[in-house]
Amino acid sequence: MMHRSNRILELDGLRGIAIGSVLIFHLGLLAPTPYSWANKAMLFGWSGVDLFFVLSGFLIGGILIDNRENENYFSAFYARRFFRIIPVYYLLIAIYYVFYLQGGELRADLISYVGPPMPWYNYLSFTNNIWIAKHNFMEAFASPTWSLAIEEQFYLTLPLLMRLVKPKYFPAMVAALIVGIAGFRITMGHAHAITQIQSYVLSWFRADALMIGVACALIVRNDDAVEFIQRKPWLPYLALLTFGAILFHTGGALLPDTAAPINTYGLTAVALFFASLLLIATILPHHLFSRALCFQPLRYLGKLAYCVYLLHVSALLAALTALDGTPLAHNTLARWAVGLTAIGLVLVAATISWNLFESRMIRLGHHVKYIEPKPQPAPQNTLPLAS
Fold it and tell me: How far is 2 from 66, CA to CA, in rounded Å?
């Protein structure tokens, strides 16, 4: 059984794979190569977001499972989440609006280089995914934060569900939510009742990936399940191959048709593929793949993932938009050189942010300790004494 005090180093490696995939995806979109096979491979990088979802469900679900009986269950959880998520995100939005509100040529340049803003209240309330879905528009400033909005909405609902549902019924509820959310997305997609963007960015179509992560958290906390997988280590590899084959069948790249396999059952298959990797990493730590996840540069990238995710699209857009006004605008090598330089600068900025800001905010949040429940007094004997 996995205990709450354990830090699983392999998860940092998985987080590194997730952010690396997203970086490759956006670089491939903005700087495509002359090779169709390379472009197709890079375009599958969108799935890194789904790996983030599975990891978040696993980690947050595990935290809540471990602390569900604690006296300050809600306050400690939200205090820690606040200091991890809010400060650097709000700082980024504030910096953008400081320049945007100057108006004039500065505002025009800002929109040209990194995109127009959504309404400020959508950013601050984490409803930017709803705004994107309503307007069917992904080219706004910091548009990748639609996934952050989904996670924040998940943080608002899962703690309450876990507190209200008895532990013996909770696994069944998780399974029902996975099936229900996937089924809802598939049904609406085949009916063409939603756009591809709506099916991609709204919580009620995407939370199956998060709940699959929660299911993994339940599995690693079940001694019988862990022992069974350790006795039959081929099982998660078989699952990996099965869901990988399904993804290969769907083509991997996102398509505008909401009834396309990748947009319906394909999204659930992506999450189950990454869940298989997650179970290998956590239950079979001595296997080659798990050891590879402990590669220090990969883990370091995973540590910086949050800030890199917030900054990378704006940095790539600004750098490549600046290149568009030069004779090298259509030169693949030049675009890749500029794009990789932008990513390098983002990594530097994220390192500074981690060392001087984010890590301190996290430590501040962890000053709020979970309080163990008070032991219940032994029942008193209320029977009358014999006379």
Answer: 10
